Amino acid sequence: MFIPSLSTIAVTTFLAASAFVKVAEADVDLLSWDDAYTKAKVLVDQMSLEQKVNVTTGVGWKEGKCVGNTPEITSPYFPSLCLQDAPLGIRYANNITVGVAGINAAASFDREAIYKRGKYMGKEFRGKGVNVQLGPAMNFMRSPEGGRGWESGGEDPFLTGVTAAETIKGIQSQGVIATAKHFILNDQELNRTRESSDADDRTLHEIYLWPFARSVEAGVGSVMCSYNLANGTYTCENDYLLNTVLKEELGFKGFVQSDWYATMSTVPSANNGLDMSMPGNIEESTTAKYFGKNLTDAIESKKVDESRVTDMATRIVATWYRFRQDEDYPELTLDSFDLDNAPYVNVQSDHYKLVREMAAASTVLLKNSGILPLKSAKSVAYIGSDAAVDPNGINACSDQGCDNGTLAVAWGSGSASLPYLIDPITGLSNALGKDVSYKKHLDNWDLEAAAETAKDAEVAFVFANSDSGEEYITVDGNVGDRNNISLWNNGDNLIKAVADANKNTVVVIHSVGPVTMPWISHPNIKAIVWPGLPGQESGNSLADIITGKVNPSGRLPYTIAKEASDYNAKPSPLKNVEYTEKLLMGYKWFDEKNITPQFPFGHGLSYTTFKYSKLKVNASKSSKSPKVTASISVKNSGSVDGAEVVQAYLSFPTSAGEPPKLLRGFEKVFIKKGKSETVKFTLESTELSIWDTKSASWVVPSGKFTLHIGASSRDIKKSANFTFDEALAVYLLRHTQKFKEAQLIRTRDPSLLSNCDAVVDVGGEFDLARSRFDHHQSGFTENFDPCYGIKLSSAGLVYKYFGKEVISNIMGDKLEKGNDKTLDLIFEKLYKVFIRPIDAIDNGISCSTDNLLYTDYTGITHRVRKLNPQWYEEKTEALENERFEKASILVGSEFRQSLDEITLSWIPAKQLVVKGFENRYKHHGSGKVVVLDTFCPWHDHLAGMNEDAILYVVYPVTEGDWRIQCVKKRGAAFQSQRPLPSRWRGIPKDTLRKVTALKTANFVHASGFIGGCGSYNDVMKMADMALKMA
């Protein structure tokens, strides 16, 4: 959010903690989206054009009580909506709670705690009458210098997605609309309103879209588009991102709002998916607006269809209804720009307890040589400006835009005014008690005095920090982004001076992100504690960790490198910021390049120890529901109770082109000393898929997966594979006349192989005459047909030379005797859809290169692989043979199912398609519409029939239910030659009937690939109009 200087705003720092006012809590049962839209339609249909536009347009900066406000409308009534920062607490408000930053929430690796954090924030925003909380943030720490990375979840999509989703669920449980921001690729502050963040579609989907997808799944009510351009177009007017990806692909039902002053146009913004412009005016110095009258004028001049502004208003109103804000919602009591005159409503309750718990749970113990927990020291020293509050006051700088004391929250619109701040000296001194004496030194630049203070203490605590924030505030020459990742305020030299003077030095770092540690090897540094950005209870939560009241369980949500040059990205001054690292962000880059980090992603120590054992993995895959379940036993083998964060990483098949491993699950589990817990993981299509750019869809790649379970990305405790073997080749041979009675021997012994009648997948030779079917040998190049370009596997070899016999033997009388043409069709089709993927998998060929080489229709890979004896099983010959027989039966049943489908369904369908093609001019004079007598698989059969001339296929589903479906472009997976008109897409049935004048029109899909009517006549009229409107 862009905000100018706020020197005119009064800041009240602290009100008595005893003056709490109980605010009514409301666990809200949200309305369904369908019901919310039904209610919204009734209201919006009563609005004039100007009223609908007003619902979408902010009143302007400082023209309302909140940072963002829409105007109230009457006749019909719709209230003014209040939109308010920030992701960690209410900005510009008194008597509120300022908790941990988003980066700390992620560092907790604790779903339940993250949810509770969101819930208490929801209570406070609701208590103040705020409709929309402008958070959580979910951009990435693409580079450690990025100014706003601290607001979000770090460097990993899975962790950021969980943090975002759980926060949203918590906020919205109170009937407050959460905002997923900033959409998208908004990962640096440098030139943020001018630079274009350019990422390929796979990178966009697998990393940067991931947390927004999880947010939509969590039911988020609003999405905020960002300042930057993405691939050359401003995000707030980017049709592909807002409409195709967010609203269609992800199915987002809420409203898209702009970041403050991120609306850059009227017509493109409205037409391309922006629903609400904030704060309303184009910039602070003018009252002119891109929406408001300019949007009304654009509609009246036909540059924007009124149906679009109806959709904009309906999305906003429906979201309001969904969160039941029409039912006794609290009155607004904010006055953001005149805090002293705001009504007194204290919403803090006992939320400080949750803040303290979360701050401790997210503190990471990076290093410990046994000095912690501190039990018996009689004297300590506190050294560094970060040990105490800013001497000018805890809220001395607008939006926390300075770094003069202990760092509890970074700067920018993502911050809030602290109600109080327990600094480290206060928290530790209170916890250690009066029997422990202490000295302090707060001047970071007087190193001699610092050393003098430290030298006689039993333990010296030295504090340092590193800050960042938003680009509208510059702190010590840092314009939002950090200029470097060294410690601020002479921190590195201060730490060395203290360590030189005291043999028991404990380093405490409050930081927005990674820092370099040139002092890391100093022998006197016995522990490093990393509280991050802990919020108002900073000192108390630190004391809980230092004294052992809380056993540390925080984990790093980013990688801390040894050298700044080890990272592969940093804020760029270029107009086009190319995301050249693609999928290799954070630990994935370090893994790929084998760079040893200082501290890896997911790292964090405990005061106890844990042992991992008994990993079990069960994998299954069908075309609809791939699933991997895993369990592992974790024992607390130490002397104190504690929580372990068990992390699951997945290595994809080599052909998938993924980084070495990706986080795909984590569980924080509390285990009493000496006890064990079984930790379970479930990975489904979301976790197992990659984005295939050719088909523009998520696909589960075939090949060998490896599941790793560990305590960090570099501390892997156990791993297990799920893989595939020669079971299909054996099945095929058993359905030939020659080998149907053959005995199976599984061996690599040459003396035994020489006496076999047939040998598959071993032996190092292919000789058809001697029935030797191996493909591993050097120089082997055999393929099914040169047009496929894929080397055969052993199964492919057997199929090529015995496939027709196998098909005939299996299908028997179901095949027309002597019809070689039909047999040839089945033979080739079965190779394409079943055998070819197996050939590709076995040869390590990717299914997701620029040219799609194969598509996996088998759905058997994981189910066969899981039959392999697992690492924990005794691998006897009997067990291996038993499992192999099961695998052969399983893969054979899948082969038979595919054969039945082709023979009994696909082949007969061709006759129906040929008939429809030949009769096409009888139904429509253009010859561009094929009508089928009944639905059947038709896509493949249009090939070779001049299918480029056919644009639509019409067919009945049931009586009184007809479909019109677009023909895809040649070679495309989803892209239609001519989609149905955009103005028909995704609109309600009643609206569609008005727009088309078709009484039985039922729907047109949001992507325009299919539509439906209740009669043949209307569906043909729909086709005719679509042809004429192109």
Automatic annotation (TrEMBL):
GO BP terms: glucan catabolic process
SMART domains documented for this protein: Fn3_like (SM01217)
InterPro entries tied to this protein: Cellulose_deg_GH3, Fn3-like, GH, Glyco_hydro_3_C, Glyco_hydro_3_C_sf, Glyco_hydro_3_N, Glyco_hydro_3_N_sf, Ig-like_fold
Residues annotated as signal peptide: 1-26
Gene Ontology MF terms in the entry: beta-glucosidase activity
Pfam families in the record: Fn3-like, Glyco_hydro_3, Glyco_hydro_3_C, MYG1_exonuc
E.C. number: 3.2.1.21
GO CC annotations on file: extracellular region
Protein name: Probable beta-glucosidase G
SUPFAM superfamilies with a match to the protein in the record: (Trans)glycosidases, Beta-D-glucan exohydrolase, C-terminal domain
Role, per record: Beta-glucosidases are one of a number of cellulolytic enzymes involved in the degradation of cellulosic biomass. Catalyzes the last step releasing glucose from the inhibitory cellobiose.
Domain Fibronectin type III-like: 644-713
Source organism of this protein record: Rhizopus stolonifer (Rhizopus nigricans)
Family: Belongs to the glycosyl hydrolase 3 family.
Location in the cell: Secreted
Superkingdom of origin: Eukaryota
This protein's UniProt keywords: Carbohydrate metabolism, Glycosidase, Hydrolase, Polysaccharide degradation, Secreted, Signal
Record's catalysed reaction(s): Hydrolysis of terminal, non-reducing beta-D-glucosyl residues with release of beta-D-glucose
Pathway participation: Glycan metabolism; cellulose degradation
